[in-house]
Automatic annotation (TrEMBL):
The gene is nadE. The active site is at residues 44, 110, 146. Catalyzes the ATP-dependent amidation of deamido-NAD to form NAD. Uses L-glutamine as a nitrogen source. It comes from Rhodanobacter denitrificans. In the C-terminal section; belongs to the NAD synthetase family. GO terms for biological process: NAD+ biosynthetic process. This is Glutamine-dependent NAD(+) synthetase.
Amino acid sequence: MPSLRLALAQFDFPVGAVAPNAAKAGELIARARSGGAALVAFPELTLSGYPPEDLLLRPSFLAACAGELAALATTTRGIAALVGHPHGEGAVFNAASLLRDGRVECTAHKQVLPNYGVFDDKRYFRPGHESATAVVDGVRVGFLICEDVWQPEPAAQAAAEGAELLLVINASPWDGAKQAEREAVLQARARETGCALVYLNLVGGQDEVVYDGGSLLVNGDGAVAARAPAFVDALLWAEFDPATRTLSAQDWPVVADPAPEATLYAALVRGTRDYIDKNGFGGVLLGLSGGIDSALTLALAVDALGAGRVTAVMMPTRYTSQLSLDGARAQAERLGVAYHVIPIEATYQAFIDALTPAFAGKSADTTEENLQSRIRGTMLMALSNKHRLLLLATGNKSEMAVGYATLYGDMCGAYAPLKDVYKTAVYRLARWRNEAGMSSRVAGRPESPIPTEVIERPPSAELRDNQTDQDSLPPYDELDAILERFIEREQSQAEIVAQGFPADVVRRVVRLVLLNEFKRRQSAPGPRATTRAFGRERRYPITSGWH
């Protein structure tokens, strides 16, 4: 029995770009046909992009998707194409249609609707109740959509209808633990059904979510036959042998660096690039303080956009150390970005002088410290407006968790690349970027992109003399270990203390997390990297009696 040749479109299909998405799909159908594929597959909700959210409530949007699907079907002479789209049929379904010989041959409706984490499928879609299969080049193929493969019933139903191969189209967001989970699920489905599985995933950044691709081929015995690299756009070719129910990849791109830091860094770069470019900004700027967070953010921005689209600004006061001044300038020069030094000491003193009568009888405290941060925020926003550059916030997840950030100060910004990255991971990424490097637009420069002294110095906000972060917070190794247990694992204080952490430290950290929800509600979006990202995934009440 001859093999079935497949093409898998691991590409980005942006939300709302219905006509451009259809045009891209049409071009890829033509490429797949010329390459001898009998079937080309596209990701979940190809035409609308994922997640389209409340665009699905607009009849005109659904009509546009339906019109593009019908037009796309006319391009499928001599090839079959599985295309994801919203399907309005009284109710709205998350659908995948098989297009062949110029028409829509059959349509599968997503049966299992996720409604956890970043997913809100039940807000928009009705569930399907039947599997869909079709014969392509003598092979019966079953069609599943994303969450369908995470439960055994849809795959079992397709297998009962004679499917030899299951083709699963996905818009599965990335986090650091996701790939291992996917492989375990796919292997279980293969062993249960005896079917081989093709897992095709979307790639690209969409607001706070990043899709990694990472498509997979799994044989009928559960063995992983091939893994596509993460965050790489590619038309992937595969062959299915129905006699042995095995799959083989045809010249897939290789994973350049399998280290977790490499994948996380690629996720942050992709999320940042896509947010900037999809929203039409020519470039970005950020406050470069001489500290580790802004240093890593600058490296990410340059790798995402190129040095010519990045501006860094140092805004010193009396508390800014020479180490910070030297480190910031060294990094800006190494990366080749536009760099400005705008002292704010005179502005700060003018604010203090103006406020002194109203502050009479009050000793200096964090008010004066936050004032410096807010002056910087105002300066950066003015530069953003004047030069039409998007402002990047540079804070990390550890700081946002405990509120170690200033509203309308260092929290100013339209996008925060490190929002879901713990401080300890910031250090790991900075060291990886220096030691392992990456294929970036600043490759070839002899110096490390992040000065070593910036990485090794004690972290400090430099808002008062001799200040360090550990004046206000536990050491970051301890803080992050507690935060990971409380936020990611949802462990109780008692459970965390039982693991050897000091009770008073745990109580203090948890109290700070719960008190600072109001700040996080006002923070900029940033790429999701963990299993419990602040924002659309972790939503706690601001006003709450639960402590």
